[in-house]
Design a protein that fits this description.
By secondary structure, the chain is α/β, with parallel strands linked by helices. It is 36% helix and 9% strand.
Length: 243
């Protein structure tokens, strides 16, 4: 196992000055058991970069909440075939989903908030997956969400999902990038993307909780639009709100 007790504060000062490719190369060189979290456009950019750096080290997982768009399922398959990689599709606990739906119906998040549903359909499966790795790579960007992602480091100690008495390192290679840079990379490198982007969707999650954004709207306004804007995290990156 690679050294998993890193001084992430000092490393962040160094890695924040590096390109995404250099951060990914460092991550792959440092950790043998590391995975890329895949769901959106940013994540495929990470997969493309990692595949070019070391195709044999690319481990990818994706969360299937059971509520994704049909286009998203086609997107997952397109990425798998394009890069010739395995994608570990992780599912929620069926008993927990059944209980939630039985007690509160299929759309309880519109009346309550999205956290309970996300906890069952996203956080539980993610926690199970992250217990099996030493580090993970995400596509978070600082400009993605007002109030929650503006201070994202290039590398951090992920205490929220670490194994007991162990550490979990989280890399955010695209922290300094803008949406424009992401899409310039996608177009320049013929990277596959979700066809929903051509229909006005920017930030894509579950079908009931995602809608296209209009001119001048921030991309996160298309997610959980019935809730307060500064708290729009599903829990995968809850550390952003705590900060």
């Amino acid at each position: 196992m690679a050294e998993n007790r890193l001084n992430t504060v000092d490393l962040d000062s160094e890695l924040s000055q590096k390109s995404p490719e250099e951060i990914i190369e460092y991550a792959l060189d440092t950790f043998d058991n590391i995975a890329i979290s895949f769901s959106g456009a940013e994540d495929v950019v990470l997969i493309d970069m990692a595949h070019k750096i070391n195709p044999d080290k690319v481990q990818v997982f994706s969360l299937d909440t059971g509520r994704l768009h049909a286009e998203t399922y086609r997107f997952i398959e397109k990425v798998r075939e394009h890069y010739g990689i395995e994608i570990d599709v992780v599912f929620p606990d069926s008993n927990a989903v059944n209980q939630l739906v039985r007690e509160k119906g299929l759309f309880s998040f519109y009346k309550d908030d999205h956290k309970e549903c996300c906890s069952i359909r996203k956080i539980g499966p993610l926690r199970r997956k992250l217990l099996t790795v030493d580090a993970w790579i995400t596509g978070q960007r600082r400009d993605q969400s007002p109030g929650t992602r503006t201070s994202i480091p290039a590398i951090q100690d992920d205490k929220a999902f670490a194994r007991p008495d162990d550490s979990l390192t989280k890399f955010n290679p695209l922290a300094n990038w803008s949406s424009q840079q992401v899409w310039e990379y996608i177009r320049s490198n013929n990277v596959p993307y979700n066809e929903l982007h051509d229909q006005g969707y920017v930030s894509i999650g579950c079908e009931p909780c995602t809608r296209p954004t209009g001119p001048g709207q921030h991309e996160r306004e298309g997610r959980w639009w019935w809730e307060e804007a500064t708290q729009k995290e599903c829990g995968l990156h809850a550390v952003n709100i705590k900060q």
